[in-house]
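$ fold --in a.seq
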Amino acid sequence: LQGDLRPITIGTGIEPANPCEQATKLDCGVTYSFNTTNETNDYDNINELYESCIDESMDLFWDYEARDILLSFDVLEQGDVTIEMTNLRTFFDFFVFRTCAPGVLENAIISDCIGISYRGGLADETLLLPDLAAGTYYIIVDGSRSSNRGTFDIRVDCPIVEPDPCTLVDEVLACGNTY
């Protein structure tokens, strides 16, 4: 069959969804409630995803086999960002990453960990990310055991973008004046 070179399509021909684009977007200053019961275990520590987050002194050795959720948020202006996870009904931790890119097997390639929040039990968790640059960031909420599934609330507080005191109104520049 020399000379009979044709492209071969394997599978459905439908590209898998990009998990990065399908991350649930969080607006700053709003508290959201989630339930991981019907989620899947897309991310875990078996492939060392969380290794860049974990310092040896933390004594974290779990595989993070629970059903997890991928979230994202936008920082519009550089400054301090606080993430709070409350009302936990099971043991969850969360990891914050700067980068998310499409990956193989419908999983995202998430890297550049910038923070982790972990506490034993059902205690509320708070993470301060000081002087965070403007951009999109990703949070994975995960549990250490496959039996960790349930509800939690999460809130991201970002720097407030101050409106420009000078605005263009009908092609007239108005700086803080009333007319």
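$ fold --in b.seq
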Amino acid sequence: PVVTTLGPLAPADADDLAAALAERLQLPRPSPAAMRATHGSPFHIHRALVRAAPDPGALGDSLTELTPAARQVLLLTAIAQTPPSVELLRRTWAAEAPLDRALRDLRQRFLLEGRDALVVHDLVRDALLAGIEPDALAAAHADAAEICMAELRDGDRPPLLLVVDAVSHLLAAARPEEAW
């Protein structure tokens, strides 16, 4: 998969993004001081529009506002060794509607990147994992291992690296007997 990461924007580009988003979202443009505080970050520019100003807790706020389904998708994507595809999640997800809503919510919040293969930015991953309880993380690794194994069983020529991924997730889930 091709992953494109957008770094800090130049001031003029940040202003252009803010203007385009403000028009699309029908919100007033952030003040010059609020724009300077974004440091050109597209994430903080969006937050400045939605919340009136980026604050240090903006990412944490976005993470705590997530629905359980969106949080599950984000966590699975964050811990994945190989970026999961939307198609793979669709095949392994219990219901398609909550998955579609979760993906839409995560993309609107700029927490998830990619159209086919999903990727979580390192800063988002770090913030998410910092707030996860060990039991919830172990359960997410068990779910990720199951997704890998489902793709190995049912996929059309799945990448064999998924075997390594499944073992790694089972070990992280404290289930070594299943890993071997």
